[in-house]
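Good morning,

Attaching, inline, the backbone tokens for the sequence recovery test we're adding to the shared suite. The designed sequence is right after.
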């Protein structure tokens, strides 16, 4: 299980706090790490079991990943930006309520 959850409601602001019941259900008893974000009609969260599970918002892209990125070619191609820019993305930055 990845520990990732989310809600998408186009045209409506979604508060990341609504993810709490989902994160409670996903977390194991000894896990307390959580990351959440909300932006652009989306709330995403991860009950962190491993350090490489992160949530971030960059411009209008919201992502929660259960991945350890070592090859940035795929993300840079998917986002149509230079690889050097993707490598500099902030990791694990959460932006509760960011617009």
């Amino acid at each position: 299980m990845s520990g990732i959850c989310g809600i998408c409601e186009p045209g409506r602001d979604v508060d990341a706090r609504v993810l709490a019941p989902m994160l409670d259900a996903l977390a194991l008893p000894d896990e307390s790490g959580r990351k959440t974000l909300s932006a652009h009609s989306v709330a995403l969260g991860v009950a962190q079991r491993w350090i490489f599970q992160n949530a971030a918002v960059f411009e209008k892209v919201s992502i929660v990943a259960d991945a350890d990125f070592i090859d940035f070619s795929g993300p840079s191609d998917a986002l149509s930006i230079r690889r050097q820019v993707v490598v500099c993305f902030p990791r694990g930055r959460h932006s509760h309520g960011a617009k």
